[in-house]
3-demethoxyubiquinol 3-hydroxylase (Candidatus Jidaibacter acanthamoebae), 187 residues
Amino acid sequence: MGLKMKKPRHLPLPNNKKDRLAEIMRVDHAGEYGAKRIYEGQLNITRGGALHKEIKDMYEQELTHLKYFETQLAQKRIRPTILQPLWHALGYALGAATALCGEKSAMACTVAVEDVIEEHYQSQIDELSNSNEDSELKEKIKQFRDEELEHRDRGIANKAQETFGYKTLYNIVQTATKTAILLSKKI
């Protein structure tokens, strides 16, 4: 007699456009918060390093993105993800750990995260374009996507792909980022 596996339960899809917009705001806020924490971890480790200023510049852009979503959540009375304390700790740990492995590893982390975020933001842009919903939000997401792509390109320019074990690190960071997105949408 074998064990019968229960079919996984899926969270219900949003009931309406308002719920979907709240989901977009919640997950994007969580992502920008996580990015802030990754860069804070990297900044604490790279003090005095060659890439410290580069990381600080990207961090400051992330703060602008985060501020936008914080304002939107407050104005629209949308709760942030309840997982924020987890992203607080894990984001910092990911940033610090990759920076401890060297500046190229910190840049590899940036490349992996930003590749996922570009795809995530593009999907939202497409969805918002198809529904003609919230053009201000769509334009902000386009702007932020472009800035995230700039971060990715800066990571590549700073030799991210020369990191020892680049593909493995890249895949681990991408999987973690995709998981964080999936969880932050609903929870």
